[in-house]
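Readers outside the structure-tokenisation community will struggle with the description of the input data as it stands. Showing the layout once, in full, would remove most of the difficulty. For illustration, here is how one protein appears when written out as sequence plus structure tokens:
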Amino acid sequence: MKSGFRKSLLIVVLLWQVLLLAGCDYFVSEQQAQVPFYNRDSRGRADTIGKLGTHSISIPAGVIDGWARYIGDPGDFADPKIKAKYQRPPESYDLPIESFGFQYRITDGDIYTSFRQTEEDYRRDNETLIPYGKPFPWADVIIYGEYDAAPLNFNFTVQDDFRVSKEVTNIDYIQQPQPLYGLTVYKANNGIDPETGEPWKSDTLARDRMIKKDQAGNIKTYIDCQFTQHINSCHHMFYNDDWHIQVWISYSRTYLPQWQEMEGNIINILDSWRVSPEGKLLGKQIGKA
């Protein structure tokens, strides 16, 4: 009797262990199924993945200047207690990216990637051009995903900038009769300092401002540039409706004539990073090491 009971108990224990092992295997399989496929570079470094605006992307390793921020991530100056408690959702090709940055080379449309020739090029240009006041052929680029219902234009931004300039500094921005590189140009008080009656000697509050509208009359590109410093710089913003993103670019005014080419090349770069929902690349990645 006791022997039969022990045999029955042993069979139950063995069955329970089999079920536990099967459950573990199922759990591991489920966990593995949730881990996305990562494209990697020649060094085995995994890409940064997510959804930028309307498209899933795989950003080559070594490209991002800093790190990518996802929607919901605490800000740089958020309470440390909030940061400690925050848990980002698992990475996927649907996880919405808020922003990231990279270095774009204006002269040929390439981008900086660590452990690639462009890393050496960037370092050399820093050492041989900037100290001697020569135009730096690299632009800082920041991409912002847009996920709300706000219109993708700078209509209000430009109007409000001009209003604040008038109310706070008593500076009127006047449209110039001739466009510049296809841009409509506005100069502070027509380029004249009201206190001296002469051309501005400082552009601290009086940068040149330039816009480009689409066929519907909405401002899609907004640029402001210095004009008095030894190395003038431009801050350039544009929207892209297909991607549903806003792009910020900073560069030497020397390269202002190439503003349209820059916009097109940056979108081409993003297009080269597009992937299917499963992470399969749709083209050859620009900037991959």
About this structure: The radius of gyration is 27 Å. The first strand starts at residue 48 and ends at 52. The helical segments are 2-34, 80-85, 117-128, 155-169, 259-272.
